Amino acid sequence: MRTDTVRAAAVQIAPDLSGRAGTMERVLNAIAEAGDKGAEFIVFPETFVPYYPYFSFVLPPVQQGKPHLELMAEAVVVPSPETQAVADACAKRGVVVVLGVNERDHGSLYNTQLIFDADGMLALRRRKITPTYHERMVWGQGDGAGLSVVQTRVGRVGALACWEHYNPLARYALMTQHEEIHAAQFPGSLVGPVFGEQIEVTMRHHALEAGCFVVNATGWLSEEQIAAIHPDPALQKGLRDGCMTCIVSPEGRHLAEPLTQNEGILIADLDMRLIAKRKRMMDSVGHYARPELLSLSHDTRPARPRHATTFPDPLPATEEEQDV
Fold first, then answer.
1. Type and span of the H or E element at 96
2. 243 is catalytic
3. Residue 1 above 60 pLDDT?
4. In whole angstroms, what is the distance from residue 72 CA to residue 53 CA?
5. How would DSSP label each residue in 258-271?
6. What ranges do the domains of the chain cover?
7. Nearest C-alpha neighbor of 125 from the set 162, 167, 87, 91
8. Annotated catalytic residue 40
9. Is 162 annotated as catalytic?
10. Which residues form the CN hydrolase domain (predicted)?
11. N or C: which end of the chain has fewer CB within 10 A?
């Protein structure tokens, strides 16, 4: 049974809508601030760098070309100077960081979650398996290879983005790998108050069902940023509220008062003994499972658009074959 404690931080801040450089500065400043508060594990919002594509929620497809191209121009390549800067910050502070980015891979964008270990190594790069609703105009699909739990300095960490948490088999894939800390990311400042209410229910349920800690970060937009995304007050309503930055124990309890408004960094200590306390009574992938009745088939192969087969050069023909 683990007896250590991990100090976790969930960051609710606004991106810099002008581009990658400004948002990266905010990321590095937040790592330093959380590190100064003793944080060992830090989670940022969904696709925080350079920013979540809020435009796709309020603009019709015919008007999305310009902002989509702007997002592509500011998106993150993995690896890049931006990922190296985060890696260096992790190594300097000895912290594990989960960062959401818009990842550009040639002509496509992906909703990508990056997990950096405390030594600066990139432990996991995963892509959201199914972008939600309006997001399908912006991002491509991820694959089963990213549904992976990785061992880090703070424990076994898994991650999902936003409505992936409504795919029970995606969650179960991480549960079968015995995640101890689950990193969740949502855009925030979207849909309205009901979105925040739904996030809370979902985060608490996963903590209970998986018997793990959940550290969830949602983003935030200022009124000036909302007005810059769309001038119509009626549509601006869809870019407010929807924030629920929270840290939840395996018993489904909030370990700190959730952040639902404004910017801030939520800090809480994770008593790892609570995992065994919860799973002693209900281990969804152990003594409470019935794998002979219900099991998950998980294809972990990376999706590749090209499969090359190389054949050896033929042997030189024999004299008899040459005479034929």
1. strand 96-105
2. no
3. no
4. 10
5. PB-SS-EEEEEEEE
6. 5-323
7. 87
8. no
9. yes
10. 6-272
11. C
The DSSP call for residue 291 is T
Concatenate the DSSP letters of all residues of 117-146 into one string. -TTS-EEEEEE-SS--GGGGGT-----GGG
Please give the single-letter amino acid code of residue 15: P
**pLDDT confidence bin for 76, thresholds 50/70/90:** very high
pLDDT recorded at residue 311: 83
Instruction: Examine the pLDDT at 78 and tell me if it is beyond 80.
Output: yes
The pLDDT tens digits for 204-229 are 999 999 999 999 999 999 999 999 99
Residue of 128, 164, 212, 246 with catalytic role: 128
Nearest to 215 by CA among 262, 269, 176: 269
Number of Cα atoms under 13 Å in the Cβ half of residue 186? 30
CB of 203 closer than 8 Å to CB of 209 = no
- The reported pLDDT for the residue numbered 321 is 64
Structure tokens at 196: 């925040």
The continuous run of DSSP H or E covering 256 comes out as: none
Tokens of 275: 């995992």
* Rounded average pLDDT over 44-63: 97
Strands of 264-271's sheet in order across = 122-127, 108-116, 96-105, 41-43, 5-12, 264-271
Class of domain 5-323: alpha beta
**Of 69-73, 191-195, 201-205, 307-311, minimum mean pLDDT range:** 307-311
Question: In Å, what is the CA distance from 237 to each residue of 52, 142, 189, 285, 291?
Answer: 17, 30, 9, 41, 46
Helix, strand, coil percentages (3-state) for the chain, rounded to 5, are 35, 25, 40
From 46, 103, 179, 180, active-site residue: 46
Q: Which one of 162, 212, 243, 246 is the catalytic residue? A: 162
Separation CA 166–CA 220 (nearest Å): 22
pLDDT at 85 over 90: yes
Residues 11, 43: contact at Cβ < 8 Å?
yes
